Amino acid sequence: MAQNTDNILSPENVVYRKPKLMNDVQMHYCPGCSHGVVHKLVAEVIEEMGLEEKSVGVSPVGCAVFAYRYIDIDWQEAAHGRAPAVATAIKRLWPDRLVFTYQGDGDLACIGTAESVHALNRGENITIIFINNAIYGMTGGQMAPTTLVGQKTSTCPYGRQPELHGYPLKITEMAAMLEGTCYVTRQSVETVGAVSKAKKAIRKAFEASMAGKGSSLVEIVSTCNSGWKLTPSQANKWMTENMFKFYPKGDLKDTTGEK
């Protein structure tokens, strides 16, 4: 007797549905990279908020430089590290738009430190999505400002040494101290539960931006298994055992509910 699959394939039983805003383009990211998951969350949130025609993403140089190929919204490319400055101009010109940047740790916390800190401190009504994998993933695996003490990279092959390289920069803690920020959080996407929390954080940040409550920063602690020279599963394990100790997850600041 043939099995009736109508109920099995009904919408409420489908585990994965590609967001409508995700284009049918093969991603260039390495297998196991966190970028693809975060892209999906961004696309889902924009679609659920009904802002498909009112969203502008800004991506600078880095692994996510081709983000415009994957999420079908308006995008603007920015020079390395300058995404918050570009996003500021777009939001001031079009205050009714959802404007966000999508930046890696080398871009945001090193080359673009000034733009990031000052845009957040001014309280620009934008969201910064900050992918922190503690390394320069695109350009050869060099040490980043967020590289952990003792962590090996192509430019510190014996491990990061504070007396030589300085200490890792906690950009999210810095952002939480600024007057202009309304929502600052640190999340990850290595488990189903973590993905759910990250999506809620992105949604809250986008809603705060549209409500004119100030700047939001959503850090996603991520893996770079290619740069770390680990398999995807090993990279997740290393992140859990090492990254989360120095970059603890959770909300650091939330004034979105204040009147």
UniProtKB/TrEMBL annotation:
SUPFAM superfamilies for this protein: Thiamin diphosphate-binding fold (THDP-binding)
Protein's name according to its UniProt entry: 2-oxoglutarate oxidoreductase
Gene3D superfamilies in UniProt: 3.40.50.970
Domain of life: Bacteria
Oxidoreductase listed as a keyword: yes
Entry-linked PANTHER family: 2-OXOGLUTARATE OXIDOREDUCTASE SUBUNIT KORB-RELATED, SUBUNIT OF PYRUVATE:FLAVODOXIN OXIDOREDUCTASE
Start and end residues of each Thiamine pyrophosphate enzyme TPP-binding domain: 68-220
Keyword Oxidoreductase: yes
Keywords: Oxidoreductase
Cross-referenced Pfam families: TPP_enzyme_C (PF02775)
Organism: Xylanibacter muris
